[in-house]
Structures are given as structure tokens and as C-alpha cells.
Design goal:
single chain, D-amino Acid Aminotransferase, Chain A, domain 1, 3 domains, 5-stranded parallel sheet
């Protein structure tokens, strides 16, 4: 892959910046694309060029036209999605004769693992243990589980950041849910145990990179903003079995729970990059493993990782409410700033401009910062509005 040109999409995400830095340092030409005007990765010295795309969710045809034109004009060899634009790109590759390779499975498998019910059935078919999970597509389905609500977790089939999750709610709180075939939900048995997140890369079913981690602080109930590496051979076995059973090629992430007895159960799957990527900092080894079918690369960062700006926005209020300022200070002192990279200081400064752009969207749309950060690339199933 030396001297090849790679297009990384989802340039708004810290994982896109990190991936660009790894591949640039390994000798590849890296082009980035996304719909925001000022994503953090566009400021990086790793970025040979940044291209602004139409919003995939709201202008699908124009998005496909722009991606195809970009791939052809820049001589792109490989496209690596990092966020939920992966679903729209997969549709582009399905419907057009694209000259570059998309580092992702086909649309059918992507949709299957993103679906919180279908994912459980798929894992079960591979012989993996899963928590009991019921599909809710009507008020009648909801009534059937109402009496067990205190032992269940309710969440939309298509969602992210733990948005709209009801954790062991009272039966009365279920009145706010109106599941339908277009907007299905799941009712999943609450699994008590230690949460583990996983980021993995696989090629044709072979595991090439795996970072297991746990979040010390989150943005609300969702994405981790300060996290530390963990080791868990049972979790690794689950992921190896899943990627082998599906023949997975691309990035894939999981939310898992380790029960007290040691059993690992999956909660959901995200077929994209997540924060575990930040535990890999060796460009040559990472690129060789992922792009040149080399041996699996292991995480080489041992200290916890964080974005300090996000910690001040989300973590500090939590510390104040819980009266755990000491714990917050310890995390800020011990964690590495994941935006830092030798010789590449601009993205750390650029995060303020990127945040201002997201905040503007949040104000205009009257939604949260977190919702605004992905509004234009969310994929909510084949029947989404």
C-alpha cells in the first residue's frame, strides 16, 4: 500500500484524525472528507487535502455523486469510513461501479449488525451466548413485556450514544414508547456486570487489531471521553469467533458485559471505528497488519486516553454532582491527551472551531451537542425518514 492514496471519511471524529496520522506516517497519501466546514482532522499535517461533502442523510444522491467524483479525481485506492456514513458509502458502492475498494462489508451485513435485534440473532447463530432480546414492533409487543420492565433495558433498534435508552424502567414509563415496524425497539434482559468496549479490525475474518477498554467518563450515557485499556481473553474469544463467523473485513466495535462468573455477553455492535483505536500508535505495524495482511498488531499505548475539552464539558459536571472532584483530577492528571501527536499541533487548536460549528447546529436544530455531532450522517434503518 506504500504510495497509495487513502480516503478517510468522517473527518469530524477524533478516530478519523488518529487513523489519518497512522496511515500518513506509514507512507500513504491521506485525503479526508466529511460534511462539516471545519472538522478537526482537516487541520492535521497528515491531511493532504480535505473535501466537503453534501450531508449523506439529507442529500443521498448528491452525496453519492460527490464521493464518486472525489474518488476518481484524487486517484483514491481505498476508502475507510469511520462513522455512520459507512452505511451511505456502502449504498454508493452497491449502486455504482466504483474504482476504489471500500474497507467495509456489504450493506446487508452492515445493516444486520447495526440492528440491535438482528445482531443478537446473528451472534446466536454463530454459537455465541447472548442476552435474551425481544423485538418490539407494536403496542401489543410492548404490553407482552410490560410486567417484566424492571428486569429489562429498552432501546431503539437503530440508535447510538445510548440515546433514548430506558434502563429497568417502571411500567408507566413505557407509555412514552410507540414501537412500529418503521421505528422498532428491543427489550433486552439487563445484564449485571463490568462493561467492556471493543474496537477491532479484521480482514476476511482474520483479526488484525483489537483494543479492549473501559470508559472512566462518558458524554452523558453514551460515548466514552476518558478510557483505559483492559485485557480479557474471553472477550477476545467472542470477537475472534464473530469476525471469523461473518468473514468480516473492516472496522467493528462492540459493547460487552462481563458477568460475575466470567461469561461475556454482547449488548450491541457498531460496524465502525470507536475510541479503542487510540491505543495504537505504531504506524508501520498498524498499516502492515490492517492493509498488507500482516500479523495482528497489539495496542502499544498503556496510559488512559482522553480529550480534555470533552472532559471539561461532560466529565466535570458529573464530578461536581457526584462530589468526586478528586477522581476527576486524577483522571485529568494521568490520562494522555489523544489529540496530541508529535509535529502535529493544529488539530488540538482546531477543536474549538469544530466545537463552535457543532454548537451552532445544536442551537439551530434545538438538539444536544451529541445529537448535533452526527445528525447529518445517522443511519436509522431502511425505513428512516
Amino acid at each position: 500500500m506504500q504510495n497509495s492514496t487513502v480516503l478517510i471519511t468522517g473527518a469530524r471524529a477524533p478516530v478519523a484524525l488518529h487513523l489519518a496520522r497512522l496511515l500518513h506516517a506509514a507512507g500513504l497519501r491521506v485525503v479526508l472528507a466529511d460534511s462539516p466546514a471545519h472538522p478537526i482532522a482537516a487541520a492535521s499535517t497528515a491531511c493532504a487535502a480535505y473535501f466537503r461533502l453534501p450531508p449523506a442523510r439529507f442529500a443521498g444522491h448528491a452525496y453519492g455523486e460527490a464521493v464518486e467524483a472525489l474518488v476518481r479525481s484524487e486517484g483514491i485506492d481505498l476508502v475507510i469510513p469511520t462513522c455512520e456514513e459507512i452505511f451511505y458509502l456502502s449504498q454508493v458502492w452497491r449502486d455504482r461501479a466504483m474504482p476504489a475498494r471500500l474497507f467495509a462489508p456489504d450493506m446487508a451485513l452492515l445493516a444486520q449488525v447495526h440492528d440491535k435485534h438482528a445482531f443478537m440473532r446473528l451472534a446466536e447463530s454463530l454459537g455465541l451466548a447472548v442476552p435474551e432480546t425481544a423485538l418490539l414492533q407494536s403496542r401489543d409487543d410492548l404490553r407482552a413485556v410490560r410486567g417484566q420492565s424492571r428486569e429489562l433495558v429498552f432501546k431503539p433498534v437503530w440508535s447510538r450514544f445510548a440515546s433514548h435508552v430506558l434502563l429497568r424502567p417502571s411500567p408507566e414509563k413505557l407509555d412514552a414508547i410507540d414501537p412500529s415496524p418503521a421505528i422498532p425497539w428491543v427489550a433486552q434482559r439487563f445484564v449485571d456486570g463490568d462493561e467492556i468496549s471493543a474496537y477491532a479490525v479484521a480482514v476476511k475474518g482474520d483479526l488484525k487489531a483489537l483494543g479492549l477498554y473501559r470508559s472512566l467518563y462518558r458524554a452523558g450515557k453514551g460515548a466514552g471521553i476518558c478510557f483505559e485499556l483492559v485485557a480479557d481473553p474471553v472477550a477476545r474469544d467472542f470477537i475472534e469467533s464473530f469476525v471469523a463467523g461473518t468473514g468480516w473485513t473492516g472496522q467493528i466495535s462492540f459493547d460487552l458485559t462481563r458477568e460475575q462468573g466470567g461469561r461475556i455477553l454482547p449488548l450491541e455492535c457498531n460496524p465502525r471505528a470507536t475510541s479503542g483505536l487510540h491505543f495504537f500508535r505504531d504506524p508501520q505495524r498498524f498499516a502492515k497488519a490492517v492493509l498488507a495482511d500482516g500479523d495482528e498488531v497489539m495496542p502499544d499505548v498503556e496510559v488512559p486516553q482522553t480529550v480534555r475539552l470533552a472532559m471539561w464539558i461532560y466529565g466535570f459536571p458529573v464530578a461536581l454532582r457526584s462530589q468526586e472532584i478528586g477522581r476527576f483530577n486524577k483522571a485529568m492528571r494521568e490520562a494522555g491527551e489523544l489529540l496530541d501527536w508529535p509535529g502535529d499541533p493544529a488539530p488540538k487548536r482546531a477543536q474549538w472551531r469544530a466545537l463552535a460549528e457543532i454548537a451552532g447546529t445544536a442551537l439551530r436544530q434545538r438538539i444536544s451537542l451529541q445529537a448535533a455531532s452526527t445528525r447529518d450522517i445517522e443511519w436509522n434503518g431502511p425505513l428512516q425518514d
